[in-house]
Amino acid sequence: MRLLLREILKHQPISKAALAKKLHVGHSTVVQLLKPLIDRKIVVESMFGDSTGGRPPKLLSMNPDAAYGIVVDLSGHKIRVALMNCVLNVVAVSRLNAESDIYSTLESIVNLCNQLKEQTNGSRILGLCVAISGVMDPATGKISSSLIEGLENVRLVDYLREKLNLPIVVENDANLSALGEFMKMEKDMNNMFYIHMGEGLGGGLIIDRAIFRGDRGYAGEIGKILYDSQTFRTVGDVYSQLSRSSSHSEDEIVRLLSTIVLNVVSILDVVNFVVGGTAFDINERLLSKVEAEVKRHFYGFDVEVRKSKKDPDAMLTGAMEYLIENVLTNL
Q: Superkingdom, according to UniProt (predicted)?
């Protein structure tokens, strides 16, 4: 069901035959998986495709008005709360700044969520997805390495579920951005790596078309990559220095990104990379230099490093897609 939903969202409108081919399953399996989604009008057969000799196939799409979801971007001190529909479009968004007291911040978030719920005119709310800069231990519910002070002392899922009476899912912001970028990719691929250069440095990894977290949830923590073996400076150390400086050079950014990409390529052999965030002015010329550096040091193989597109927002897109997968899979 999870992969079925992802393929519909990524390729809609799409026929049942095309879905079966992409999922490597039989037509009857696709029909069986689709039944609860069509019965609840979450997926609709909205138009006809081109005929290959017989009756033209009906094409499937998500129904944008079937349900909504709320996404909370809690990855930094500038917080966003967005209402999104089932085709991953932003319906409304509110913003606030994190306060010194974490519970005051969370209370403001809850108030904004309730205001957004009123805009759905009684339509179903699937749940709420929270993007965090750290990692949440699924066993304890505790969050570590967050940029938001005090968040590590809150059982976030329990708190929000009690206040909002909605299903709550929490995921790392870079992982959600990676998923969002993957959903926006026009070409089909199985693996990609997302590099986030914002208030902090992070990475998100897609392996076999799904978020890869590792054994402890820390996969993609590129800040710990060794940058200089003589001084034991890490990529994170260099990033912090450059992001605070007003006079960094393009060559310094190229070396930083080349170090990250080369390490990821060496271990995982990923070809596709996306760089997002607002910390630096990333342009095509700079990324071409990164590609050339990696090719020079890694057997002459090509990699593709591109800049994230701001519209649609990758993190919000990935968060809503993640929410849809986690809630609708249980139908």
A: Bacteria
